[in-house]
Amino acid sequence: MTSINISLPDSMRTYIEEQVAQGGYSTVSEYFRQLIRQDQKRKATERLEGMLLEGLESGNATAMTEEDWMEIRQAVRSRISKHQGL
Question: How far is residue 19 from each of residues 15, 30, 33, 41, measured CA to CA in Å?
């Protein structure tokens, strides 16, 4: 694991120490890791929501044809073959 040093004003350090004591974290590092995980999850949710909105705004849905399914199957098989070849 890699270390990162950061500089904080005293008021922030006090706040963080309070959060560690009250939040059940064993260390300041654990608190920061949790903050980062929450931020990653929030950003992933935002990306997903954006993609869903893009899909909803992309026009009317059309029925999948047998040809569409065949193309999807072929694309999956191709990706599996490439992956197995690595």
Answer: 6, 11, 13, 20
